[in-house]
Amino acid sequence: MSIVSNPTIEGYVEQHHIIPRSMGGKDTVSLSARQHFICHWLLTKMTQGDDRLKMISAFSKMCFQDRYGHRYINSHGYRECRDTLMPEIGRRVGLSNKGKPKPAEQIQKMKAGMAGKHIGKRWCNKDGQNKRVVQTKYEQLLKEGWLPGRVFSKKTQELFRKKGLEGRNKQLGR
User: Which of 140, 141, 142, 168 is nearest to 153 (CA)?
Assistant: First the structure.
């Protein structure tokens, strides 16, 4: 690839394994963020089988936001990732786990990871948008015209009705 053999380094650079580590590569090259992104995109097109799944996974992690909201992708890359690549991972990974109960240990780990995550947070809404925020932010939002509680879409309300949970908003104090 000419990107790897002749990188144009401008400002910020990232290290990229010329041959991916998962395929036994060790040598790296410095690439611009854009070049690094393009290389990972191209690797999804150049590999097959298990190697392709690994490259799709690496590329998809570059496409979506991290927990801090940092990541940008153009519309073409996003479409490619969502429409073509992610369904392939979903089929291969999802089908292997479909219908299998989770072990009790895994369920406990999931519960432990969420424990206390929303303590002290409250729901508020405005113009159909819901937010769960800490108490100080909640009080500020109420002053700015937000309303207490959250609002469910018509589709969600219909699901609640079907499952006999029509009073869910009232039961939860929302």
Answer: 168
